[in-house]
Amino acid sequence: MKTLEELRQRLRQFARERDWEQFHSPKNLSMALIVEAAELVEHFQWLTQEQSKKLPEKTLREVEQEMADVF
Asked: Rounded to an integer, what distance in angstroms lies between the CA atom of residue 15 and that of residue 22?
């Protein structure tokens, strides 16, 4: 299992390899976070509390991916 520090370093390397650091301003990162959070919320928008706890397997996988994007 990776530590949070190891994961952070891997993500930084990933961004460096793609020259993405030029886009990582506070403004751009905060806007990207909101977009990703909105994509997560879409999966729950019209569900009841109970439905949100019993997602179909496909939706659950999609939610997991969106949570990773937010992270």
From this structure: 9
Residue type at 48 in one-letter notation = T
The answer for residues whose C-beta is within 8 angstroms of residue 40's C-beta and 6 or more apart is: 63, 66, 67, 69, 70
**Per-residue pLDDT reduced to its tens digit, 7-23:** 899 989 999 999 999 99
Helices 26-42 and 57-70: crossing angle in degrees, nearest 10, is 170
Percentage of residues in the chain having pLDDT higher than 70: 99
DSSP code of residue 23? G
Which one-letter DSSP state was computed for residue 3? -
Supply the pTM of this predicted model.
Answer: 0.75
Instruction: Determine phi and psi for 36, rounding to 5 degrees.
Output: -65, -40
